[in-house]
Amino acid sequence: MQFPQSLNRTQLPLFDAFLASTTPPLFAESGELPWQDDEGEAFSELSLRGAAGHCLNLLAPVLRQLSENHDERWLTLIAPPSSLTQAWLREAGLNRERILLLHPRGEQSPLELAQQALKLGRSHTVVSWLHPLERQARQRLVQAAHQGKAQSLNISLG
């Protein structure tokens, strides 16, 4: 069976397009984080859709790399989904000695907790699971990340 393709544009296989990219790898071997550039980009977002188990399997290498960061600060996970347990962290090969799992208390929202963790500067990366993330909330995370010289990574699971 053949599928129609547009004749006026070339479609590259996924990995060929990725390998042809001139951007540096997501995590440099030197331990230098990609967001420590002159422009100071402090926010990233990853959107995963599908079965929860599949999403966690896709997320595991990203979190593993962040947990092995050469920065002396923490990888902080703010209000992770219930399926992201200590057992899952261990099975996924994450360095649990470099990870903080935090949950909001009382009236505090996950957004407020993420902002506080970012501002303190004791984490190189603060991972949140905020969905949907409004523009104003994103700006608040960016400002807090700049203040704490950290990176904010929001994971949107569908």
Automatic annotation (TrEMBL):
Q: Which residues form a coiled coil?
A: none
Q: Which domain of life is it from?
A: Bacteria
One short Pfam name that applies is SulA
Protein name from the UniProt record: SOS-induced cell division inhibitor SulA
